[in-house]
Amino acid sequence: MSLPVREQQRRDSWSALQAAALDLVARQGFTAVTVDDVATAAGVSRRTFFNHFPTKAAALFDPHPDDADRLARLLADVDTTGGLWAALRSVLVEFVGGFAAVLPVRRRLVAEDAELDVYHRTAHRHVGHAVETWTRDRLPGDPHRAALVAEAVAAVLITAFTTWDPDDDPAVFVELVARGFDVLGAGLARPGGDTAVTPAQHGCASLGR
Predict the structure, then answer these.
(1) Which residue, 74, 149, 150, 160, is the most exposed by fewest CB within 10 angstroms?
(2) Is pLDDT above 70 for 132?
(3) Cα(97)–Cα(82) distance, rounded to whole angstroms?
(4) 205 CB-near residues (< 8 Å, 6+ apart)
(5) Neighbours of 191 (CB within 10 A)
(6) CB-count exposure of residue 130 (10 Å: 0-12, 13-18, 19+)
(7) Crossing angle, helix 170-185 and helix 143-163, to 10 degrees?
(8) Number of domains in the chain
């Protein structure tokens, strides 16, 4: 379903600003780039910039307006017959595969600035919230296990991001996410039971150690 024209224009403007911010910072560095630089490169006014983002960091790290809907669709459509952990692996591997264009700049920035690292983690908490809500719906009466699964997913994503070398292909980051699910899956109890989940049981090939 297509968006209303006004909303599509708003999202196009948002995307242009983030693309400009990422490009400028990649070439000039975070401190050298101003909000005015970003607005000019995106072909919009300073006022329009602040209609979308409160800060320069937000322009670099805030999730795309489509991200929440895309994640919700993936979670709604995933096959859970192989277990919840396998389903989450499938969803998150596909989800993070859409970030190839922004990953290198963001990874370098958080390595250089602790405050940006904190902002980056905060900006993407929506992923953990979505996963926990989805898991709670499938584990009624066990909020502790649902929260534990959500925290485990967050650990997989954060660890993949912090150990990935931004000079490597972004596909390596996706492989690290998949491997994280496999490593934890080999030692986690299947949600709702006591049987250990191995990569073979949830249909995930081991990526090697």
Answers:
(1) 74
(2) yes
(3) 22
(4) 182, 199
(5) 18
(6) buried
(7) 140
(8) 2
